[in-house]
Amino acid sequence: MTSAARLPRSLVWAGAVVFVVAVGLVLLMVVRPSAASPSGSGAPARAPAESSADVGFARDMSVHHQQAVEMAFIVRDRTGDEDVRRLAYDIINTQANQRGMMLGWLESWDRPKSSERPPMEWMGHPVTASDGSLMPGMATDIQLDGLRAASGRDAEVRFLRLMTVHHRAGADMARAAAGSAATDEIRDLAAGMARAQESEISLMGDMLEARGARP
User: pTM value?
Assistant: First the structure.
């Protein structure tokens, strides 16, 4: 991932929005009985363990989503193509909102939003960061620099290719969480993510083809 000093101003605003959403969700959880409470009694549900798929997915996918939002902001400012800009806006809005939800759950579970544990350890195959790519599918620092330097069709193709790879890995992670998480919140969100990202992968394939490019 890029350092905080290199983040575009638009991404800083996105981070602020995500923080507000996360705080709102935490407050909502405090004043409402837990959905996982037995018989709607309002008794707090047991928080998922630090090593659980629920916590690992919420933490890792928050990082994964943050880079997708960053790339969407970059391409939004480097093309006038309405289809690409519309897709970028969809990714910004959807993934920033989902990230806020996951950070809110981590807060409500009293689990840290970051960890020294390797990413994807909860899936059984921890990974090591490489040139800013913290997890499978994430763009490297060099790829992000290339996207920032591009414009027009070049920026569109770079973005669509990077986001296709990003979505494929994200969908794989989401399917794993949907099948192994203990909470309804994570299972439902992850299943919905997998379906949505697979749909967008198909859309981006068509958009690349329309530009005479391959995924």
Answer: 0.79
